[in-house]
Write a structure and sequence with these properties.
Largest sheet: 6 strands, antiparallel
Distance between the termini: 71 Å
Shape: globular
Strand content: 25-35%
């Protein structure tokens, strides 16, 4: 698989597109005024301890107090790392209101929820993740070769012994790397943690102790590899930063970094902006003529697969299988692109043959392996219903770029013209006894005005017969479809 990174940087916002085999797969957006806080380390103060919820709220200087669950206060990875006595501790035995704590943000504030935090920080480097508060050695699950896993664990145990404790996890990028690479990473991360502790001793809470890297640097640190065929940046400052980072991480890739200096943005030239616009709509067409419909809700995301215009194969089962396979690939791409999380329910077209259902599940599993966000796949029934759970760590693309409609209050629906015309009838009939004059002036949206002259003309006719007075209709494009004004003449 070949990958390309395209960066569009502005003073107030940075956007990064990840393109895989020529198709847009993921988009990352970071606004300076709303910069991500995930990975940041804070000096906080406990404001409330809730025994009934086994959690605490901590003031870390954000708009809302952060949420610290008992498990995150006691451990950072696995309860098996704790002694039986530690596992039995309750939150009120661990924390007191007013207590100072050093915490790291695990999950962004979402909606009315504050950030989720942990008291066990993990600092990522190029090849290692350093966990200063636990004694643990681990290897990324994506490294499956047992011999390589044993080699990495042996090196990490030696590095940990030299550093005098703490925990380390070998990242996916650590495969086949030398001991010197790990030692260099460990020294840098340990020094960073020492600086955090020193700052915490001087700064009263709430205070920011360590900020995670910016979007471009963070992404390059995590995914830079020989698979990256090109890195395109349209800003001189970000271009120079990227050159410095690539020179440090993987200098042989420096020729692949290029500065884009055309009048039009790189996003527009490569069709990324148009793809983003389509990603905000519910319907996605497939090349076969089928389509999928994506409906995010508060509780889950529903995805429906339809054959649409696809009438291709001789056998109905083959047509359905073709549509479902294409939909499986596309919906995973859309999940990544839109950054959908939580519970995702997919309603595939019913397939009669078991081997067809198995093929669709295999394709889903293969596509989900490309996703860096942890996910699980479950086939619920033989009728095509599949559930995907995907870890949510930040706002979806829709929530990042859009806001709830102030007219429909987020329902996605507004009153149709017939309903508005019926309300106009009721309102004028109610106002008639109070208004003295020769009739009424009715200001409405142009679409409602058109309807009152044609299919809803009976509304004006009935009002004229009822009131015996004139009703003038005036279209006003500044009025929303549901709005209207009634004024006496």
């Amino acid at each position: 698989m070949t990958k390309e990174i395209v960066v569009m940087s502005r003073p107030q916002e940075t956007r990064v597109a990840l393109i895989e085999d020529g198709r847009l797969s993921e988009v990352f957006i970071e606004r300076e005024a709303q910069r991500s806080v995930v990975g940041n380390v804070y000096h906080g103060r406990v404001t409330r301890v809730l025994p009934g919820m086994q959690s605490a709220f901590v003031d870390i200087g954000l708009e809302r107090d952060a949420f610290l669950y008992v498990a995150d206060a006691l451990e950072g990875l696995d309860e098996n790392l704790l002694s039986p006595e530690e596992q039995g501790k309750r939150i009120e035995e661990k924390l007191d209101p007013g207590e100072k704590v050093v915490v790291q943000v695990l999950k962004e504030p979402l909606g009315q929820k504050g950030a989720r935090i942990t008291s066990h920080a993990s600092l990522p480097g190029r090849y290692l993740v350093f966990m200063p508060t636990v004694e643990h050695v681990g290897v990324s699950r994506k490294i499956t070769d047992e011999e390589e896993r044993r080699r990495l664990k042996t090196i990490l145990k030696e590095v940990r012994a030299e550093r005098g404790g703490g925990g380390f996890i070998a990242r996916t990028a650590s495969r086949s790397r030398s001991r010197e690479d790990f030692e260099r990473d460990a020294r840098y991360l340990a020094k960073t943690w020492d600086e955090v502790r020193a700052l915490a001793s001087r700064q009263a809470p709430p205070a920011l102790l360590h900020r995670e890297l910016g979007l471009v640097q963070r992404l390059l640190r995590d995914i830079l590899s020989d698979e990256i065929a090109r890195i395109t940046l349209d800003g001189e400052r970000e271009y120079q930063r990227t050159l410095e980072l690539v020179r440090e991480l993987q200098p042989d890739l420096l020729p692949r970094v290029r500065l884009y200096d055309k009048p039009t943005s790189a996003f527009e030239e490569q069709g990324i902006q148009a793809e983003l616009e389509r990603a905000l709509g519910p319907k996605v067409w497939l090349d076969s003529g089928g389509y999928i419909v994506i409906n995010p809700t508060e509780a889950l995301v529903a995805i429906d697969v339809n054959t649409g215009r696809n009438v291709g194969k001789e056998r109905l089962e083959d047509t359905i299988l073709e549509t479902n396979l294409e939909a499986a690939r596309e919906l995973v791409r859309q999940i990544r692109l839109r950054d959908l999380g939580g519970i995702i329910v997919v309603d595939f077209i019913d397939m009669e043959e078991r081997r067809s259902r198995k093929r669709v599940m295999q394709v889903l599993e293969q596509e989900l392996k490309k996703d860096r966000a942890p996910s699980k796949l479950l086939q619920v029934s033989e009728f095509g219903l599949v559930v995907i759970t995907r870890k949510r760590v930040k706002q979806s693309l829709e929530r990042t770029l859009c806001q709830p409609c102030p007219y429909c209050a987020g329902s996605g629906m507004i009153k149709n013209v017939s309903t508005v015309c019926a309300e106009i009838y009721d309102e004028i009939r109610k106002l008639a006894p109070e208004v003295k004059g020769d009739g009424f002036l009715l200001r409405v949206n142009p679409e409602v005005a058109r309807a009152l002259m044609k299919e809803e003309a009976a509304v004006l006719r009935d009002l004229h017969l009822l009131l015996g007075s004139e009703i003038r209709v005036q279209g006003d494009p500044l009025l929303h479809q549901e709005q209207f004004d009634v004024v006496g003449l």
